[in-house]
Design brief:
489 residues, alpha+beta, five-stranded mixed sheet, five-stranded antiparallel sheet, 17 helices, globular
């Protein structure tokens, strides 16, 4: 058995790990192995932010800082990165400026959530030395507090702006050099496939597309992990083991974003936070919806490939991608085949993906010159960071008040995300009028037989689906009309 290692910086200490269960989360490692108890466990599902840590990566000669949830991040994802926790922020006998601001503005009461808030503020100020209020609220949206009411924490965030250089800035050259050294050391071991093993469980962290392809051929039952924001819940919530894990976050070919004349190509393992700003320029409603998928910590980890590959009927991006007529590039070994994303979903949690295949990228058509009207609506019990009850997407091309092309897709209405074919037929070629919309609303009952569950009843789902088509009609035909924010189940 090959006995390899992963290496990373724990603050400024080069750390090497081997023979440890790769199902171990970063939170478990910090608390149980390193006895760093500052990082807290609140929900074990990436919802509360108490476990927030910061990862620094060397990118183009600079350090890029990201907040993430340690409770749903696995150890193999740390390879070649710097892990920063709340214990690392103090500089000698002086608190870090974001810590001092929290003290000065009384941003902590019971204190349980405070380390997570501080780490989110630390990442915020690393990325935006003078953050706007929107940037501040976005950075803190994934951290929950039951004591302060948040006002003091937001004030602390403003007080810590432009705080000047800290020890991380002073050590940036050495940090980058060490991270690059880890990468060079790893490159020398490419033939070893970077296996991480505890004797019973194993994980691979491939560094190229060819490596990943070979690993999947050799281990067809392996579980792919990119952000892990859903799959790791099997460990933390269901107490399962994932078996053989293949962490794809270090495969550069899966981390790309390309803009062509007619399409975008999104690497399957590129986090939401890195491609959404580019996509939102052309599809603002898609961008707005992605911001509601989860907190910034989640969007720093979660990926489009993971959301599609998870094949959940309530995944947020598949209905939008189906309505946009997106394509999937699936790779097996050296062979790549392309399919329409609507053909990927076969049955509940069943896809057309073949043995040893994996999603390499997602191709999203760019809007044509006569831009279609794209409307995306997410219905959930709370506005932010919640699972959808229904997600509706209407992609309508309207010329001279006639619907020349309609693509309509829903999530949460069936066992898979799917097009509303009968609804589309009632729209295509018809005048854009209330009568047409009424006919299309009636056809939704022929497209879906929704189920009742803890999020919504079947009757509610059908009613809200029809109402969302009405909402789209009003917003497109009367753009100045305020239909209200009907985003709650």
């Amino acid at each position: 058995m090959i006995n390899n290692q992963i290496q990373f910086l724990l603050n400024d200490q080069l750390t090497t790990l081997s023979d440890i269960d790769p199902n171990t989360t970063i939170l478990q490692y910090l608390r149980q192995h390193q006895h760093k108890s500052g990082t807290k466990e609140g929900c074990a599902s990436g919802d509360c932010g108490a476990c927030t840590v910061v990862i620094a990566e060397a990118v183009a000669g600079k350090l890029r800082y990201k907040s993430l949830n340690a409770c749903i991040s696995l150890l193999p994802s740390l390879h070649g990165k710097q892990l920063i926790t709340v214990e690392d922020l103090e500089d000698g006998d002086r608190l870090h400026p974001v810590q001092q601001a929290m003290v000065d503005f009384h941003g902590s009461q019971c204190g349980f959530c405070t380390p997570g808030f501080i780490m989110s503020l630390f990442a915020l100020h690393k990325n935006f030395p003078d953050p706007s209020k929107h940037q501040t609220l976005e950075a803190l949206a994934g951290n929950l507090c039951r004591c302060t009411g948040y006002r003091a924490i937001v004030d602390a965030a403003a007080a810590a702006k432009n705080h000047g250089a800290d020890q991380f800035d002073r050590n940036v050259a050495q940090t980058i050099a060490t991270l690059n050294s880890i990468a060079r050391h790893t490159m020398a071991q490419l033939s070893l496939n970077k296996e991480f093993n505890d004797g019973a469980q194993q994980a691979f962290s491939p560094l190229s597309l060819s490596q990943l392809s070979q690993i999947m051929l050799d281990n067809p039952q392996a579980r792919l992990v990119a952000g892990g924001t859903d799959i790791v819940l099997e460990i933390t919530q269901m107490h399962k083991q994932l078996g053989t894990i293949v962490y794809v976050g270090n495969v550069p070919e899966l981390q790309t974003f390309e803009e062509h004349d007619d399409k975008f190509v999104v690497g399957a393992a590129l986090p939401y936070s890195e491609f959404t700003p580019h996509l939102a320029i052309h599809y603002p409603e898609f961008g707005d919806m992605i911001e509601r998928i989860g907190s910034l910590q989640i969007r720093n980890q979660g990926t489009l490939g993971g959301n599609v590959g998870n094949a959940s009927p309530i995944g947020d991006t598949p209905p939008v991608l189906i309505a946009l007529d997106a394509k999937l590039n699936l790779r097996c070994g050296d062979v790549v085949r392309q399919i329409a994303i609507e053909d990927y979903f076969v049955d509940y949690k069943v896809t057309s993906q073949k043995t040893s295949e994996f999603i390499e990228s997602i191709e999203i058509p760019k809007p044509v010159s006569k831009a279609p009207q794209l409307k995306v609506y997410k219905i959930s019990k709370r506005f932010d960071d919640d699972i959808s009850a229904v997600l509706a997407t209407f992609n309508l091309t309207i010329e001279n008040d006639v619907i020349t092309k309609a693509r309509v897709a829903f999530g949460g209405m069936a066992g898979i995300p799917a097009r509303a074919m009968h609804c589309e037929q009632a729209l295509n070629g018809q005048p854009f009028t209330q009568a047409t919309i009424d006919a299309a609303k009636a056809q939704l009952a022929n497209d879906y037989t929704p189920m009742s569950d803890v999020r919504a009843s079947k009757d509610y789902r059908m009613t809200v689906a029809q109402n969302l088509l009405q909402k789209a009609f009003i917003e497109i035909s009367q753009p100045q009309t305020n239909t209200g924010v009907v985003q709650y189940a």
